[in-house]
Amino acid sequence: QTSIIPPTTIPVRVVFLLGQSKEDLNSAHAADAAAGGSTSTSTWGTGAVYGNETLTRLRQEADLYDDIIQEQFLDSYNNLTIKSVMALKWIQSRRCYEQAAFFMKVDDDTFVNVPNLLHFLLGGTVPLYNDTLDYYDSKSYQTLSAANRLNATVNYMVGYKFCKASVLSNVKSKWYMPYYMYQKDKYPPYLSGSGYLMSMDVVPRLYEAALNTSLIYLEDVYVTGMCAEKAHLQRRHHPLFNYSKSKHRCTLRGMISMHKLRVEDMYASYNFVKNVTYQCPPPGKYFKRIRLRRVNGCG
User: Which protein family is named in the record (predicted)?
Assistant: First the structure.
């Protein structure tokens, strides 16, 4: 008989990565100038905290849960790469890779089904429901197959993998990439930044690669594409690291992560996943013919 380890016995730590607002940076720079040019990596303890509700609440959160990682840079979409490299730096400096087995980075609008994640990390399976069939292909839907179970603890990176993605030259696009930053027509294979997972031994290798790789503002392309390529790391595709939102509630039950959720969606998703009394329907009779996607072209 196979024993099942209760998820509550497996330590999972959640931390939040932050930069600073323009006002915070201006206050910190003014304080540095008054102190003779010394540089601080946080506004904690400076005069900027007082009278600023956001900073006050962040400090309370940090004092209560010790889950805030913050450095002195402008927190903006174009600086997401700095934030992601900051995470690698924090893990490296604290030698977290000696105490933890895996690291997962997700966007703040990504919901993570932690029980499914833990089942996956332990080499188990994730339930297959009718509402999640659209994310599988003719190979990955075979959840009981050993080929679809995690059996690696080192040299491992996984998420929703993109291959041969074109560089966008339209200046109106959110993902426009100027030529001076990136001169090629295609990006290297990379994992969606909505949520990707790696074994802890990968983190120092990515961080070392980042120290010698020119920054671009698309953090997933940079970290899991350019830096991973420089570090000779293979990126693996898994359909349940979802980069889009589903309109079906039961999709949450069968996914590892789901992107583009609002704050109120997070609470509703958590409560739904916890509600074990609601039974999600299994796949229909003819799903193999009409619902499965083509095999991901990344190989």
Answer: Belongs to the glycosyltransferase 31 family.
Given this model, what pLDDT does residue 33 score?
67
Where are any strands of DSSP class E within the chain?
A: 16-20, 68-74, 102-106, 111-112, 157-162, 190-199, 236-237, 257-258
Please tell me the distance from the alpha carbon of residue 126 to that of residue 120, in angstroms, as a whole number: 7
Range of the domain at 59: 14-32+48-74
Let me know: does 162 contact 190? Beta carbons within 8 Å.
yes
- C-alpha–C-alpha distance, residues 194 and 180, integer Å: 26
Q: 125 and 254 in contact (C-beta within 8 Å)?
A: no
* Confidence (pLDDT) at 288: 62
- Residue 199 has a pLDDT of 97
pLDDT recorded at residue 290: 66
- What integer pLDDT is reported at residue 139 of this predicted model? 85
- Distance set, CA 170 to CA 26, 50, 174, 177 (Å): 33, 43, 9, 8
- Structural domains in the chain (count): 2
Q: pTM (2 decimals)? A: 0.88
Among candidate residues 69, 44, 67, the one with its CA nearest the CA of residue 55:
44
CATH number, residue 95: 3.90.550
Gap between the Cα atoms of 83 and 243, Å rounded: 19
Alpha-helical regions (H) of 179-261: 202-210, 219-220, 228-230, 251-254
Q: Using the Cα atoms of residue 77, residue 43, residue 90 and residue 198 in order, give the sign of their dihedral.
A: negative
**CA-to-CA dists, residue 34 to 22, 49, 72, angstroms:** 18, 17, 17
Cα–Cα distance for residue pair 6/119, rounded to 1 Å: 10
Say yes or no: 65 and 203 in one domain. no
> Which tokens sit at 192?
């969606």
